[in-house]
Amino acid sequence: MPQIHFGRFNLPQRPLVMGILNVTPDSFSDGGQHHSLEYAVSHAERMVGEGADILDVGGESSRPGAPALPLEEELRRVLPVLYALRDSGTPVSVDTYKPTVMREAILAGVDMINDINAFRAPGAIDAVRGSDCALCIMHMLDNPTTMQHNPAYGDVVADVVAFLRERVAALTAAGIERERLWIDPGFGFGKTVEHNYALLKAGRQLVAELGLPLLAGVSRKSMIGAVTGKPVEQRLAGSIGGALAAVAHGAQIVRVHDVAETVDALKVWQAAQ
């Protein structure tokens, strides 16, 4: 089976499951229940046992309306977890937009920098340029504090493609290899429900136009609740449906809270292909 280069690892060329590990006291979907180091590592080990291909560690909530987190607090939350997981045998991603956190995470051995701000912060590209880790470029309208204040586009798919194309050009112009890059349309980051589903359906178009693999994160988000009518804690089935739809529309990685259930669903889906 062909392999995907991913930081220190070569991963199989199939739909991959990224398990979400929030080390925040205010995450929108898990209430910060993985906040302590011991519990975070235990939860990471459980997700690996359930079949997670990648672990994504985040120390700052990016839910709509979330305030920015001070740099020192983010470092205090994520670095112990990153060091604890570096030799777990599973690729580790860090979800951050701060260049200092990126640098420290690279020293800790992470395999992906997953940036909701698409490496636009001053110094972000320089922070990741000399590393070998994968880089995920996400589209977001404005910032988490304001992104859901009446988001509007001329054509959401065309606008997101144009944004991602510009960011890919900026990174490659800085000498970063295209083989390191991933794209994420940013479901829920400055989009209405209609915008989100238009982008979900356009996954293969994004991959074709940009020539890069797609990471999709729809797990437990409001776009699931809008269709199912269920609150966050009851969005498991809808989230699995969203993950399968994302893969069917071209996603290479699905970022999820519920690893075991998503892994099983993908196994059945793949068996039927």
Provide keyphrases for this structure:
single chain; 273 residues; alpha/beta; two-stranded antiparallel ribbon; 10 helices; 10 strands; 41% helix
Description of the molecule:
Strands 8-7-6-5-4-3-10-9 form an eight-stranded parallel β-sheet. A two-stranded antiparallel sheet has the order 1-2. The chain starts with a strand and ends with a helix. Helix 5 (156-173) links the parallel strand 7 (134-138) and strand 8. The protein is globular and about 40 Å long. The chain has ten helices and ten strands. The chain has helices at residues 37-49, 71-85, 99-107, 124-129, 156-173, 193-201, 203-210, 222-228, 236-248, 259-271; strands at residues 3-6, 9-12, 16-22, 54-58, 92-95, 112-115, 134-138, 181-184, 215-216, 253-256. Helix 1 crosses helix 2 and helix 2 runs parallel beside helix 3 (99-107).
Strands, helices and their partners?
Layout: E1 3-6, E2 9-12, E3 16-22, H1 37-49, E4 54-58, H2 71-85, E5 92-95, H3 99-107, E6 112-115, H4 124-129, E7 134-138, H5 156-173, E8 181-184, H6 193-201, H7 203-210, E9 215-216, H8 222-228, H9 236-248, E10 253-256, H10 259-271
Parallel strand pairs: 3-4, 3-10, 4-5, 5-6, 6-7, 7-8, 9-10
Antiparallel strand pairs: 1-2
User: How much helix is in the residues?
Assistant: 40-55%
Biggest sheet, strands in spatial order?
8-7-6-5-4-3-10-9
Beta-strand content: 15-25%
Q: What radius of gyration results from the CA coordinates?
A: 17 Å
- General form: globular
Largest sheet: 8 strands, parallel
Helix and strand pattern: EEEHEHEHEHEHEHHEHHEH
Which structural class should the secondary elements be placed in?
alpha/beta
**Count of beta strands:** 10
Helical stretch count?
A: 10
In angstroms, what separates the terminal alpha carbons?
Answer: 16 Å
Low-confidence stretches: 27-32
Average pLDDT: 93
